[in-house]
Specification:
With 291 residues, this protein is of the alpha+beta class. Helix content is 41%, strand content 8%. It has nine helices and four strands. α3 runs antiparallel to α5. It starts with 25 loop residues before the first helix and ends in an 11-residue tail after the last helix. Bound molecules: flavin mononucleotide. The site of flavin mononucleotide (FMN) has 11 residues, from loops.
Length: 291
């Protein structure tokens, strides 16, 4: 069997089932490179623009996302007209004000950077399509399946947003993933402004622009901590105390610092204290006891 090349694609597109398991796999290398480079950037270069062709390429990536029962419960509003963009930004400035007022304690960012976007993708989700997912036939199973249908819906929307962000990166641009559009008041304002029925919801908003600063890296848990081979490895369980430590002490730094490993921080020991091992090795829970 020989690998085939899809018209218009850059590399070999193997639909024959012959896996490329060679140690050096250029397809994987460029794929993982895009994945690693995808970043949440909240500062863009001013006064830039891009063509609709590029924006269509980005939307095309979203279109190919997987979804439960292939219902594709999304629509993408691509705001690229500067006047409309400014009005969308106003909605998000008000959203950010409410976040500061009503959700204190979260390290939120002032959203004026949205003024410098070349486009804003609004990913709408339509929950009516959930009827296509499995439904229970008894009251208990109905509740169980209904909850799982929510999961299927959100994962599908997330897959589309992820594809869009990756395509942004592959086109040399950068973006962020804003969940604030999904709040009731913000969604009402967006639906009024953009003309969509209010039962659709802006689950993800993706401002796109040219990066104004280097944000090439961000904290990631070590691979060996994330992988559980064949069964859940209890030594890798993250304890309640660890979750709380992240919330109370680490979150603003882990969210915004330009380093993938916490050990690279100059103030690593001071910031992490007794939590160094839990955050940098595969032994988050040395006792192996589970709650
Ligand atoms: C479901 C979800 C919601 C998010 N919501 C916001 C948001 O409202 N505002 C924001 O600035 N970033 C938001 N982010 C971006 C995260 O803060 C970011 O992905 C994380 O800090 C890791 O940074 P990185 O994307 O640069 O790797 C969100 C990400 C996800 C997956």
């Amino acid at each position: 069997m020989c690998p085939t090349r899809r018209a218009g694609s850059a590399g070999p597109f193997d639909i024959t089932g012959v896996a490329n398991v060679k140690p050096n796999n250029p397809d994987y290398d460029s794929f993982i490179d895009i994945i690693r480079k995808r970043r949440s950037v909240r500062r863009f270069d001013k006064g830039r623009s891009i063509s609709r062709e590029v924006l269509e390429r980005i939307a095309e990536a979203g279109r190919w996302a997987p979804s439960g029962a292939n219902v594709q419960p999304w629509d993408f509003i691509v705001v690229e007209d500067p006047e409309m963009r400014d009005r969308v930004v106003e909605v998000f400035l008000r959203q950010a004000d409410r976040l500061m007022k009503y959700a204190k304690g979260f390290p939120s960012v002032y959203k004026s950077y949205l003024n410098n976007t070349v486009a804003i993708f609004i990913v709408l989700g339509d929950r009516r399509w959930n009827i296509n997912f499995p439904h229970g036939v008894t009251p208990e199973s109905e509740a169980d399946y209904r909850q799982n249908n929510e999961n299927i819906f959100y994962c599908s929307i997330g897959a589309a947003i992820q594809n869009i962000q990756l395509a942004v990166t592959a086109n040399g641009l950068t973006s962020a993933w804003l969940s604030g559009g999904g709040e009731q008041q913000t969604n009402d304002e967006l639906s009024e402004l953009l003309g969509y029925p209010p039962f659709l919801r802006a689950y993800g908003t993706i401002p796109i622009g040219f990066p104004a600063k280097d944000v090439s890296s961000r904290y990631r848990r070590p691979l060996e901590q994330v992988i559980h081979w064949n069964r859940y490895e209890a030594e890798k369980f993250r304890t309640d105390e660890q979750v709380r430590f992240y919330l109370e002490s680490l979150r603003p730094f882990a969210m915004y610092r330009n380093k993938s490993e916490l050990g690279e921080w100059e103030d690593f020991e001071e910031r992490l204290g007794e939590w160094q091992e839990a955050f940098t090795t595969d032994r988050t829970n040395p006792s192996g006891k589970l709650p």
